[in-house]
Structures are given as C-alpha cells and as structure tokens.
Amino acid sequence: MTPAEAAHLDGVAIAEAVRAGTRTATEMAQESLDAIKMGDPDINSFTSVLAERALEEAARVDAQVAAGRDPGPLAGVPVAVKNLFDVAGQVTVAGSRISAEDPPATSDGPALARWREAGALLIGALNMDEYAYGFTTENSHYGPCHNPHDHSRVAGGSSGGSGAAVAARFVAVSLGSDTNGSVRVPATLCGVFGLKPTFGRISRRGMYPFCPSLDHVGVLGRSVRDLAVSFDVLHGYDPDDPVSLDRPPEPTEGRLDQGIEGLRLAVADGYFARGAVPEALEAVATMADALGIGPRITIPEAGRARAAAMVITAAEGAQLHLRDLRTRARDFDPMTRDRFLAGALVPASAYLAAQRFRRWYRGELGRVLATADVVLAPATPFPAPLIGQREAVVDGETVLTQPYLGCFTQPLSFVGLPVVTVPVRGTASGLPLGVQLVAAPCREAVLLQVAAELERRNLVTL
Amino acid sequence: MWTVASEDLERYTRAAAAAAGLEIDDSWWPGVVTHLGTLLARAASLEGDGIEMPDDPAPVFRP
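Predict the joint structure of the above. Result:
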C-alpha cells in the first residue's frame, strides 16, 4: 500500500491494517506528518504539530502489536484536536493571544485520553475562531483556515481546522466543539461527516469553555463508521463534568448495518425549508426522495430558538472573559471583541427570558420528536463563503455571512439534540453542502444507522 | 421588555459599560452598540402567541 493509498483509508481501515500488521502505526504517523508538511502551508489547519509525541505513541502501538496485544479500535489512527482541548505539555490557546500566555496543560483532557487509550495517535492541535466565537475560522492571530476544496474560501467554524485537516486527509478523524454549530458548519463546508452528540454525552472536562450551558464535544471524520467508533470510545459518564449524563454507554458501531426498515423518517419544513440558496434545500429534497421519505414535520419557533441561543451565547461567553475584557480588550481578536463586549452588557432579564424560552422549546421539540425517529434538515444556508466575505444574498435579502451560517444548526443544539451531518455536493456551485440528521436525546445510534444507509446508497459525497 | 430606540440604547450601553468597568474604544463603539441592540431585540422577540414561558429557567440544562 502506497502513502497515497493510505491517505484514502478511513480510520477504521487504518486500524484494521495496523492491528493485522500490514501497516505500522509509525508509518501512519510519518505519512500524516509528511502530508501536513507538504499541504498545510496552503490550508493553515494546524496551529501546532506534535511530531515527537505522535511518533512516540506510534512506537507504543507498534510494540503492542508486536507483543500480540490489541492496541484498540483506533490503533495507529492519526487524529488531531481543536486547540481548545487540553494536551499534556501544550498551552491550550483556544484560538486566542491571551490564553497563549497560560501555563501548559498538565494532562490530556479525558476525551483525548480515551482516544489515546484506544490506540489513536495525536498529530497536533487545530486552528479555530478565537474562544470558539465564530463560524468561519478567520482568526486574526493565527491566520484564516482555508477550505481544502477551494483555498479562497473559509473552512467554516469555529472548528475550522478540524474540518479542513480531515478533508485534506492530514488526519483521519478530529475532535471539535459545538456550541451553536461549530462541528456541523465546518464539517459541512469542508465536505466531511460531523457528529454533535447529545448535550452531556462526552465529557467537556479539559476543554476550554465558550458557553457552558451550550457547549458540546463533537467528532469529524470521513466515514460514518469512524464517527461511530470514535463516539463509542469517547462517550460515557464523567462525575467531574457537572453536565455529564449519568447513563450507561450505548455503543453504536453494531447498529450501522441495520438499514432503515421500520424507522420513522421525516423532513423538517417551515423554517428549515426556506432562507437558503436553492441547492442547500435541494440537497435535503434529493436525499428525502432517494429514501422515499414522505412526512413533513414542523419544528415550531425555530427562529426564536436561534435568537435565544444568540442571547445565551453572548451573555455566558462574555462572563467567562469579563476580567480580560476589562483589562486587555485590545488583545482580543477584532472578529470577536465587539460581540464579547456587547455580551457583557446583556441584562439578566434578557438572559433569563432566553433560558425560560429554552425550557418551553425543549418541551415542544420533545413532542415533535416523539412522532419521528430521524428528521432531515439543511445544515448550512449556503456553501463556503469567500474568505473576507461579509455579506451574502439569500432569497433576495442581504444577510451577514458569519452569523447566518448557523441559522439551521443553532435551533437544534440549543436544546442539546444529537445531530449527524452528512456531506453532499452542491449541484450549482459544486462545493460541499450538508444535511443534518436530527433525533431525540441520546439516540445517536439511530442517527448513525441512517447516515450509514445514506453512505451505502452513495447518497453522500466527500 | 427591552426596547432598542437608538438614543436609549446608547445611554444604556454607556451606563452599563461604566458600571461593569469596561472601557469601549471609540472605534469599537458602533460594533458594540449594534451587537447589543441586536441581542436586546432578539430577547424582546421571544414572547409570542402560543408560547407559554415557564416561570423557572432550567438552572442546569438537561436535554
């Protein structure tokens, strides 16, 4: 197998080859490092590459294979993490200049530690919007992350590096965080799969927070089975994360070949059927037609849910940075500073109104999702904008590009629902687009089951 | 609920920033006021027909 062939393997195939002894973890690590050295100057997805650590971990995996021991389901799989996850010995910069002055993390966060115990090789840390407050990863401190499909366009955000590094085949899988769409937007714009699990499913300990009542850990990859295996390794109760769900693990990988027979599938209409360029809506319709989905379902007040999510995000996000906003506001990225300052001035009554609305909305969505197992919706309103593009025209109206990218993701993460985004290619632009698969809380397995069926039927395009 | 009349918004922003100990550079001012106005308008939009807001927000959110 040549390095070029290896670059087209997904994580599960790499692990199978390493466990079988047909490839070594050291080869996989070195090929990933070589690809980054060759290609990332044009993409800017990595903010640090940890070659020494990657090769040490690879040697450990190879030694386990040589000794006849199983290194785990991600044996020798190159992975990378958004640079807001703690990595032992590295400063958790969270896309900022301010946090770059912090001392290095003393240990890996639990999500990364679980991946490492499963045999994964950490290759490095990835570019992002400052403190995760954005949808485009046009970071003023570390430079914009370029979309591998068109270098003049954004990779999405805030986990832009996580999307780009997987799409460029530098690594097989990456970790991102999703508060309002920060896994799903870059996964969509970069043309890879994204999984935002139910709120509290994966421990957020060791992850720099953005908005504590909305933050999730998520995964990006080039196959459904990579998401499934990663999720199976990552999820579980953590008593040291106050929002962690205390329920037994629910493995998903074994469900991937079960098809969609008997599942109640529906398409979201109303808010989710307008406010986007035609090809974004056509992507959903094409998929629904191929699966023979007839029912339409209305998610009520999704626009207000997005509004409330913005209020909560601004208020909670600013509160975390209040001291720095008082003493060194000039050191913030101009792309985030104004919004953090505005968030610091949101009155408590506005914040609490948004939280009260959230509780009402959660009840409404519970009723809606009792009638369908999986609901299809568009992921973004348009494909990747140009770097520096501030406005776009949708349905004849001018919208601000950056915030509008989250119009379809925010109403769903707002109440912690699990979502998988599947990649498709736009019929007009030829650029990646995506479809969200949405389910009731803790039903990640059924989402991945449907995504796997779409993959089998060649309805997805990487 | 909150209104976003520009003169009221500017007065509120100046007073709230001063009370919070935040210094807002003149060049940032338009962006901050615009963002805050948008947030307040969004908060004001949350009450609508058929929405029965519960009295208590969920203090620790559970899906």
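The first strand of chain A starts at residue 46 and ends at 49.
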